[in-house]
Amino acid sequence: MRALDIAASGMAAQDLNVQVISNNIANMNTTGYKRQRAEFQDLLYEHVSRVGTQTSTQGNILPVGIDIGGGVKTVGTPRLITQGSLSQTGNTLDVAVIGDGFFKILMPDGSFSYTRDGSFKMDAQGRVVTPEGNVVQPGITIPQNSTGIAINSQGQVSVTVPGTTTPTILGQLTLTRFLNEAGLQPVGDNLFKETPASGPPQDGVATVDGYGSIQQGSLEQANVDAVTEISNLIAAQRAYEMNSKVITAADEMLKTTANVQ
Amino acid sequence: MDNALLVGLSRQVTLSRELEVVANNLANINTTGYKADSSIFEQFLMPEASADGFPPDSRELAYVRDRATWHKFAPGPTQRTGGTLDVAIDGDAFLVVQTAAGQRYTRNGALQISPTGTLVTTAGDPVLGVGGPIQFQNSDHDISIGEDGTITVREGASATSDSTRGQLQLAHFDNAGALQKEGSSLFSAPAGVAPQPPQNVRVVQGAIEQSNVSAVAEMARMIEITRAYESIAGLLQQENTERISALDKLAAVPA
């Protein structure tokens, strides 16, 4: 009975839906996390009787056909790149982007990764790095004994070195934008990689040409909305249950047939 | 007596097909832009078989067969997602998609941008604008989609003025029932069914249309199907018992 396979595809889809929702909920407090959504489409149809088939020599045609669907498939788990709310931390090296743009990070293998997580640290050499120790681009080294690290809305990093009164500008953080940010590949550690689907990276400067602005002392929270996720979870769970009921129904019908003597 | 078995069988076949339709609806309860199906049955009069022992109006044997599946085009609930490229259509119209097999129509407005900057469906097929596929440039940002489907962007250094990238093509069908489901949330129009310009249609950015499957209705229908199937099985069983007892009685030769 085909209903069994159809319902099984529905259960598999809802299982994946719950996985995506649970990953969103698990990352509710992950800095710079962007929520995902499972996107489904219906499977192929069997056209038992095609619409538009001639039913008589007078040219009468079937106004509606018989289409029997084969279930559901998952087409993707697109990421929703919307602004997360900012939380004040007061840390001088915590930065958040308001608007478009990712921070550019140099990976140990020489490639670049991109992130919205601006919880940067300073390493032993005074370089601005991610919590994993990868250098934020362009490499900015903070001199020893300097005080008053300031990052302005354009991403300019300045410090006051001992013996001077005017701040010294050390460099400017790069922001990178993609045409299709949803096409970036997540690689964990809050990092994304460029893919053919994302389009090439376009480096720019904060607040210029539509790039976002940088806020020091804040972190961007995940854009996960608990209420939405929980209501999606309930819907997914009920849908799973209903598909399992279809399996029970198909099973009962088969049993009925098997019991006819 | 054989006829009774066949009449019952014809009903069971249609019921198991109807269950497949219900199963497909429930499997697609969370599919964006999905439209529910329902089965239509008709009486099928058998010209050859008739029973002369009955009153005239019951002489002909009536079987049942499924005549059509009917797509319910009622709008599904709109869910706000906040996604820039998510669109829901408020009104009686479809988005037009260019596939390898020709133009197809969909209500699934979860759109994406391809690596080459074309506006596509989640499956990667270009979504057509009024003048063909909609193409973005690498320097485009702040995409906004107006109520009439006009897509505007801020281009490169320009942070204040909008550039238009096209207008989503919307297709309306006077007889949407003639559309055929293709899978992948797509509908195809058979020969002779042409799209019309839509009236009173609004494109909503940042929202998608959910499946219009009514869980309660489908569950109720499923219970109905199982019970009907069981009662037919009971009928067949009874028919069989009758036949056995007839054989016993007729074959009993008095000693």
Features:
heterodimer; A: 261 residues; alpha+beta; seven-stranded antiparallel beta sheet; 20 strands; 23% helix; elongated; B: 255 residues; three-stranded antiparallel beta sheet; 2 helices; 18 strands; 34% strand
Structure description:
The complex is a heterodimer of chains A (261) and B (255). Chain A is of the alpha+beta class and 261 residues long. Helices cover 23% and strands 29% of the residues of chain A. In chain A, the strands form 7 sheets. In chain A, strands 7, 8, 11, 15, 16, 17 and 18 form a 7-stranded antiparallel β-sheet that branches. In chain A, strands 12-13-14 form a 3-stranded antiparallel β-sheet, with no helix packed on it. In chain A, strand 9 and strand 10 form a beta hairpin. In chain A, helix 1 runs antiparallel to helix 2. By secondary structure, chain B is of the alpha+beta class. Chain B is 25% helix and 34% strand. Chain B contains 2 helices and 18 strands. In chain B, the strands form 7 sheets. Chain B has a 5-stranded antiparallel β-sheet with strand order 14-5-6-16-15, with no helix packed on it. A 3-stranded antiparallel β-sheet of chain B has the order 11-12-13, with no helix packed on it. In chain B, strands 1-2 form a two-stranded antiparallel sheet. In chain B, a hairpin with a 2-residue loop joins strand 15 and strand 16. The radius of gyration of chain B is 27 Å and the shape is elongated. At the A-B interface, helix 1, strand 1, strand 2, strand 3 and strand 4 of A face helix 1, strand 1, strand 2, strand 7 and strand 11 of B.
